[in-house]
Amino acid sequence: MVRVMVRKMAVIDTSRLKRLFSDSGLSLSAAQLEAFSTYAGLLVEWNEKINLTAITDPEGIEAKHFLDSCLPLSILGLDASIPQGGSLIDVGTGAGFPGIPMKLIRPDIKLTLLDSLAKRLSFLSEVCSSLGIEAELVHGRAEDLGRLELREKFDVATARAVARLSVLCEYCLPLVKPGGSFLALKGSPAEADTEAEAAARGIGLLGGKISRVERYSLPGGDSRTLIVIDKLSHTPAKYPRPKGKMNKAPL
């Protein structure tokens, strides 16, 4: 159950947010709308202290953060996108996107938020506490945790605006169980297609295969691409490599 602490300032228009989600096939309850409003207030408040996002206008938060994070659930099917009660790790989560909005829509998800910056995790801790949602906050780097502690622990990994796909897959696929999937939220189709082509060989080496590519637009017209990568087999022990090697010689 979502529990929300009331904020003094309403940053977003919840009626408009409800319409945005409804137009995309996702319905929001009153409690969910209040949760998103509280989240937006905390985002703007904390952004004055630490750099979380360049997008702080109400319509930008509503469409480019909240809706953008949740559209994969609509595109793939609300119940089909992530197993019921499944585990999801959001890699390089930053301000909590897409993991926290997904959790608000699918509260059954067992959510892990991974980020390398402790200040961001302090923000995420307050968000989770204020919204009354459970999430494990992990301070570290995917290339380190994917070798031992978090290796093949999750049904689904997500990442949004973290790195090019050839590097991103080496961060994320080692964290996913065989039979699970990696949802890569990318930008324009042209760039995403180029990245997917360059990453195809490496994805295979890591035990994965691109199963679906969805191209769509946000209400303001910004292009987006969702790349779904299925984890078919165990990732070989030599992956992930150190970050420097990934960047210098992508798979």
Description:
The protein is of the alpha/beta class and 251 residues long. 41% of the residues lie in helices and 21% in strands. The protein has helices at 14-23, 30-47, 58-76, 99-105, 118-131, 142-145, 165-172, 189-205, 243-248, and strands spanning 87-91, 110-115, 135-139, 154-160, 176-186, 208-217, 223-231. The chain has a seven-stranded mixed sheet, sandwiched between helices. Helix 1 packs across helix 2, helix 2 packs antiparallel against helix 5 (118-131) and helix 7 (165-172) crosses helix 8. The longest helix is centred in the N-terminal third of the chain and has 19 residues, at 58-76.
Q: What's the short version?
A:
By secondary structure, this protein is α/β, with parallel strands linked by helices.
